[in-house]
Design goal:
mainly beta; three-stranded mixed beta sheet
């Protein structure tokens, strides 16, 4: 589901899905690889590349090509988890990915609708949104 659809759209097929590395239980953390206008573009990071930067006092990711770092992720789970006390009868609901155009690099705004369609058609829907 595209959030903030007020950006312009190309109306053509310029985005192709290549791969996504996210998997349960952290489905929303992975590398999305797309071909956009003939260029291979990588978004997001793998969870196992996260390390603590003591100097910066924050978690940082190391991409496979530091000279060409991945674009930041722009997707969030559209699913949910319900339940809890007193019986702890938790239920999960899988929902389509939410793509926030404001979190997408501006150079891709014109293909945001296509990215949304390709992502949701090729990546298993998330269940809780807890990782976002």
């Amino acid at each position: 589901m595209l959030v903030k659809k007020n950006k312009s759209s190309s109306g053509t097929s310029r985005v192709k899905f290549i791969s996504y590395t996210g998997k349960w239980p952290n489905l929303c953390t992975g590398i999305l690889t797309l071909e956009i206008d003939g260029e291979v573009c990588k978004f997001g990071h793998n969870l196992d590349t996260m390390t603590w930067d003591e100097k910066e006092k924050k978690w940082v990711y190391t991409d496979e090509d530091p000279q060409n770092p991945n674009y930041e992720p722009f997707w969030h789970s559209g699913g949910s988890v319900t339940g809890g006390p007193p019986d702890y009868d938790f239920r999960t609901h899988c929902g389509e990915w939410e793509i926030d155009v404001d979190e997408l690099d501006q150079k891709f705004w014109d293909v945001a609708s296509e990215i949304d369609d390709v992502f949701n058609a090729n990546v298993e829907w998330g269940c809780c949104g807890g990782c976002s």
